[in-house]
Specification:
- The protein has helices at about 5-20, 45-60, 75-85, 100-105, 115, 140-150, 165-180, 190-200, 210-220, 280-290, 300-305, 305-315, and strands at about 35-40, 65-70, 90-95, 120-135, 155-160, 185, 205-210, 220-225, 250-260.
- The chain is an alpha/beta fold and about 350 residues long.
- Strand 1, helix 2 (about 45-60) and strand 2 form a beta-alpha-beta unit.
- The two termini are about 30 Å apart.
Length: about 350
Amino acid sequence: MRRYRFGAFVAAIACAALALSFGFAQAQSWPQKPVRIVVPFPPGGNTDGIARIVAQRFSEVFGQQFVVENRPGAAGAIAAESVARAPADGYTLLMTTLGVTAVVPAATKAPFNPLKDFVAVSKVGSNPFVLVVNSSVPVKTLDEFVTYVRSQPNKINFAAAGTGDLIYLSMVLFQKRAGLEMVPVMYKGGAPALADVVAGHVPVYFSNLSDVLPHAASGALRALAVSDRKRLPQFPDVPTFIEAGFPGFTIMTWNGLVAPAGGRDCARRERPQDRRAPPQFRHRAARDDVRGVRRRDRGRRGVLGGGGQDRRRTREIAPESPPDSGSDRPGSGFTGPSGQVNH
């Protein structure tokens, strides 16, 4: 796992916010009031948890309150649009994901342009997904799952957090690769989707590792495969999709901070002497397999559009022309259970 350099991360947000609001001449004047970190999903999920740890640390470092505000819906587009339309004064930030800034604009008619409407602050970390089923589903391996679903086309539901959500599109991609036909059930975020899977209302979910760990430990959920190249220390007995017979099936997501466009980028950054992440952040990162990001991926190139590899994967899993599905934002649409995707 990459080592976290939290001091560089703190310097990045300070630099970006100062450039947005006051310029370099008044570098010591920010922040003068509370700063909002908008989260595009409900409380309790992976992105929300990371945002709250970051907000706590920023409050300690800057001596001003950083407040997490949850604005779920439309796979993150509602929150992204609200931040894009906010004043570029350094007091509104978006804790975004690969799905929000890269997949949603590619898969839907998003009300924002990630390259024009945002200025990148920094990536925070990246992590893989886990395919899980409710413990009542009569399968124990990915091969058994494929056989089980294939025998019941269009009868097995899976949970997803909106049309442009990376979890939804990852499941679409897996269906395409495995020759399956499943029916999506849309939610406003990962937390309510996972709650219904744990309760048995929906049998299948493609989830962030952090969200499923306690439920897998309790036996409520069963992990079938992970989307990383190697097995995870948290699930040493769970194979990767590659091991289970799906070559090249690796999907990673990430979290990062962006701000409304309108300011200028920083050319130089003063970095604190203590660059390591605080203990609680390192502990959560180790527990949830959230990896630190490379220096070259911290800024605009890495956050807005996700970089070359993420854009290629987005083109592969994004729907060609999503119809209106009646999801939580008009016109957002989703591909049907046939899993029609771009290649």
